[in-house]
Amino acid sequence: MGFQQGFFSLKGKTALVTGARTGIGQAISVGLAASGAHVLLLGHRDNLDETKAKIAEVDGTCETVLIDLSQTDSIREQIKPVLEDHQIDILVNNAGVIYREPAVAFSETEWNRVMDVNINAVFILSQEVGRGMVERGAGKIVNIASLLSFQGGVFVPAYTASKHAVAGLTKALANEWAAKGVQVNAIAPGYIETNNTEALRNDPDRSKSILDRIPAGRWGSPDDIAGAAVFLSSKAADYVNGHVLVVDGGWMGR
Amino acid sequence: MNDLFDLTGKTAVVTGGTRGLGKEIAKGLASAGANVVVIARSISEEVLTELSKEGTRILGLSYDLQDINGYKQLLEHIDGEMGSVDILVNNAGVQRRHPSVHFPKEDWDFVMDVNVNAAFFLCQAAGEKMLAQGSGKIINLASLLSFQGGLTVPAYAASKGAVMQFTKSLANEWAPLGVNVNAIAPGYMATEMNEALIADPQRSRQILERIPAGRWGTGQDIQGAAIFLASKASDYVNGYTIAVDGGWLGR
User: I need a surface site. Which of A88, B1, B37, B100 has the fewest CB within 10 A?
Assistant: First the structure.
């Protein structure tokens, strides 16, 4: 299919995906690579072998970039050589952390760590990578939001605040950069089988009550997110701006 | 190359598929490999020839969508000609503009009939078959006026609000049975429906100033979202309305 390949193909593009070691970040990395993008896998430790192997399986190419996104003071300096070596066409801000504690006792250290990784690092990377995109007049940024960009969650106030901020930042950047050819959007995954939801899945009560509310009748798999990520990274989404695409098996409408 | 977005061998039905966004969506689905049935009040050979350029089978059916009682038969006919329907795009829509104080009842009813009732009952007729086969993709055309109120188009706004809502209702029922029901909310598109707006320099400028992308949308802009929602790339997307609006709603 000529149209299809041209429209959704990422051939010749370079993508940077944060939190690429596992879960959604891994599935997105593999999806982008399978669509032809060269993927820079960003992790904070050199443990990205599983993602690399999966990319090799789909005949994709990748390399690793090691940056600790919780150290927000050093991100700019560390991303600089990457930007000197690569023209990044697609930035996927996926890395995220969650911390559970009732709000009355919520640790300020944890609050700051969640905010640093989930929103402050997203802004810093968007700014550093987005600058080149704006100059070139082309680029795609895909932020990973959450159902908690819309809802409050329970015992995860920092996560909720940070994910609302991601949705807001997505629109704010889109308003500035859309006219310059840079599309900034987000994906809000529903309840997906990842490390971040392991605690929920292991709790039989919570697990059941969550499943009962998902119209699709199943937890999402990280692969369910890859399609949306390829779409938003491709020419097929050139007029989609500042949008938070929900991939949740119908949760939000229930 | 991954085949996430491949629609080869699928049968798609697009209402209002002979002009405007409907035609663009029909073209897009065909280009991704789908055989396409376009339904409209009248069908021209010219349009069918244009849609056939993608190399898939195209069938034009002239039908008045206000004839809701005939949908079962319509679906049977499509089934016989093109095989079972995998993808339904409820695109046909009408617009009537009057200040609310004088909005005529017959115009209100007409807008509701076409935009809401026809779309819902076509979902019902096609959905019944999709549920039986355990798979299917339904895409309804919502609007920015599913979110906003518009000006002097209360029936259209009400109807598009309804489309977004019943999209969720159907998804809640049908998602566990393998049928994805979603919607697309196009922004200000340079189509026939908006010719009057584009031609009005003041309205045109006001609209353009609010679109972050700085341009009106094109037919091609909508094709990507339609193919995404028609394909297995969106298998876990249910009851959702994707805005393709150049950023309008966030501004």
Answer: B100
CA distance to A98, A194, A199, A210, B44, per residue, from A202 (Å)? 16, 12, 5, 12, 59
Q: How far is B71 from chain A (nearest CA, A)?
A: 27
Backbone angles phi, psi at B238, to 5 degrees: -140, 135
pLDDT of residue A5: 53
For residue B167, the chain A residue with the least C-alpha distance is A253
- In angstroms, the CA A208 to CA A49 distance is 34
Contact A246, A188 (CB under 8 A): yes
pLDDT beyond 70 at B183: yes
- What interface predicted TM-score (ipTM) does this complex get? 0.90
Domains of chain A and any CATH numbers: 2-248 (3.40.50.720)
Task: Quote the pTM value.
Answer: 0.94
- Residue B53, pLDDT > 70, answer yes
Q: How far is A151 from chain B (nearest CA, A)?
A: 16
pLDDT tens, residue by residue, A64-99: 999 999 999 999 999 999 999 999 999 999 999 999
Residue A68 near residue A46, CB atoms below 8 Å: no
* Domains along chain B with CATH numbers: 11-243 (3.40.50.720)
Chain B contact set for A243 (CB, 8 A): 242-245, 247, 249-250
